[in-house]
Amino acid sequence: MASSIATKEELACLLTLQGDTNYALWFLRMRTFMKNKDLWGAINVEPGANPARTLKKQLNDAAAVISMKICDRLYPSLVTKENKDNGFLLWRKITTQYSRYTAHRFTRCTTAWDNLWFNGHMLDFLDGLDRCLTNFAAIGEARNSRDICGHIVAKL
């Protein structure tokens, strides 16, 4: 089913959703993949009560790809009878669950931000910085560029 839309090699390049820890990067890579496969419109716009046959195929293909890239631990809570063949419903469930702002997510982001230090390896520091900013963006928490610069200087 999904082999017609994605090869094993393409699927291997996509991250597997592990939860809050990698949602932001998983989302970005999955979005790029879905746009490349012309599935983004299918999962990002309400399909209506009776979608056309072509759209049903796209929804099914998208659901297959998305469900293959969810870890076993999360799968039962995310993939249900209602959304297993509907990429729009599955995508909405995942993004609603992991991209919304909660006090817990904000605390995790700020804790990671505060615990980021330069330990002699600039690439590791920049990777950590990028990860923190991506996680803030995933919950809709914008960081002021002056605050980012101040934080970087303070941590060096």
How would you describe this protein?
- The chain has 156 residues and is mainly alpha-helical.
- The chain folds into 2 domains: 8-99, no CATH class; 103-154, no CATH class.
- Helix content is 63%, strand content 0%.
- It has helices at 8-13, 23-36, 40-44, 53-68, 75-78, 87-99, 103-114, 122-138, 145-155.
- The longest helix has 17 residues, at 122-138.
- The chain starts with 7 loop residues before the first helix and ends with a helix.
Describe the protein's topology.
Elements: H1 8-13, H2 23-36, H3 40-44, H4 53-68, H5 75-78, H6 87-99, H7 103-114, H8 122-138, H9 145-155
Features:
156 residues, mainly alpha, 2 domains, 9 helices, elongated
- Total number of strands: 0
Spell out the helices and strands N to C: HHHHHHHHH
Count of domain modules: 2
Structural class: mainly alpha
Q: How many distinct helices?
A: 9
Radius of gyration equals 18 Å
Form type: elongated
Strand content: under 5%
Mean pLDDT across residues: 90
User: How helical, in percent, are the residues?
Assistant: 55-70%
Outline the low-pLDDT stretches: none
Largest sheet: none
Q: CA-to-CA gap between the ends?
A: 50 Å
Protein name: DUF4219 domain-containing protein
Organism: Puccinia triticina (isolate 1-1 / race 1 (BBBD))
